[in-house]
């Protein structure tokens, strides 16, 4: 065996994908652009409302001013998909942090051999966290056009929703890669 080749490739893939997923999920969770509402009747034509799970911002393309904290007159924040996302997205972030700590303890590149059961358990936690964020993102996407919006306006998915989708997928793939460590445990027995 070559020196310096202690960490299996699957573990490295997991340790690269999961922090990237965490950053994308954090950005997607905190930024207010899950949905964009444009071409609102009786409003300036360049006005765009960006709705997230915590805030709504209005922006005009003709000026750089962005106003957040817009009033929720249509009950957007009371909708079940938005409320579920408010609970599950932060829970997923916390679970991801926990999974990354466990993964770091399990992989520990400076040890002679990684702790395969610990790395595998971290993979399962990270897989779960990815599924925990994918569920509300998928549900919100499914209900995107059914959520309250001014009549006659144009609706589109925002960048925060896309980032959350990508982050969830990276978490799932990274978690699966780390969970492959269980295969090594089975071989040793």
From TrEMBL:
It is a multi-pass membrane protein. This is CLD23 protein. Gene3D superfamilies: 1.20.140.150. One of its GO terms (molecular function) is structural molecule activity. The chain crosses the membrane at residues 87-106, 118-139, 159-182. Its main location: other. InterPro entries: Claudin (IPR006187), PMP22/EMP/MP20/Claudin (IPR004031). GO terms for cellular component: bicellular tight junction; plasma membrane. It is found in: Cell junction, Tight junction; Cell membrane. Belongs to the claudin family. Keywords: Cell junction, Cell membrane, Membrane, Tight junction, Transmembrane, Transmembrane helix.
